[in-house]
Amino acid sequence: QVQLVESGGGLVQAGGSLELSCAASRSTVSLNAMGWYRQAPGKQRELVARIISAGYTNYADSVKGRFTISLDNGKNTVALQMNSLKPEDTARYYCNAEVGTYVRRDYWGQGTQVTVSS
């Protein structure tokens, strides 16, 4: 079991920045990966960024060069720094943790709303 608690969402103007943070209830070193997903109204949830404990990252094409994901294994947190925000980044952002050796299991936070005004 992993409990995830997000913080840091809010309202920002286009071109602005926000940082999201997610605290995990257990050591992030024990997780396969952590990530951020987002879901806008009427759309499917999509991967924004993902990181494994060794530091390898991958990003959605739409956020490359603007968003940075980072993992702090000492604090068991994962952060998402979002710069040059666009109105199309508006969505509810969810923290994700992947566990499991042979079968993947996903855990999710409650989500935090990010709204970018034009």
Structural class: mainly beta
* Proportion in β-strands: over 45%
How many distinct beta strands?
Answer: 11
Termini separation comes to 40 Å
Q: Radius of gyration, rounded?
A: 14 Å
Count of discrete alpha- or pi-helical segments spanning 4 or more residues: 0
Arithmetic mean of pLDDT: 95
Uncertain runs with pLDDT below 50, 5 residues or more?
none
Structural description of this entry:
This protein is an all-beta fold and 118 residues long. It contains no helices and eleven strands. It has strands spanning 4-7, 10-13, 18-24, 33-39, 46-51, 57-59, 67-72, 77-82, 91-99, 105-108, 112-117. Strands 2, 4, 5, 6, 9, 10 and 11 form a seven-stranded mixed β-sheet that branches. It is globular, with a radius of gyration of 14 Å.
Brief digest:
With 118 residues, this protein is mainly β. The chain has strands at 4-7, 10-13, 18-24, 33-39, 46-51, 57-59, 67-72, 77-82, 91-99, 105-108, 112-117.
Task: Based on the model shown, name its key terms.
7-stranded mixed beta sheet; 118 residues; globular; 11 strands; 4-stranded antiparallel beta sheet; mainly beta
Task: Present the secondary structure layout.
Layout lengths: L3 E4 L2 E4 L4 E7 L8 E7 L6 E6 L5 E3 L7 E6 L4 E6 L8 E9 L5 E4 L3 E6 L1
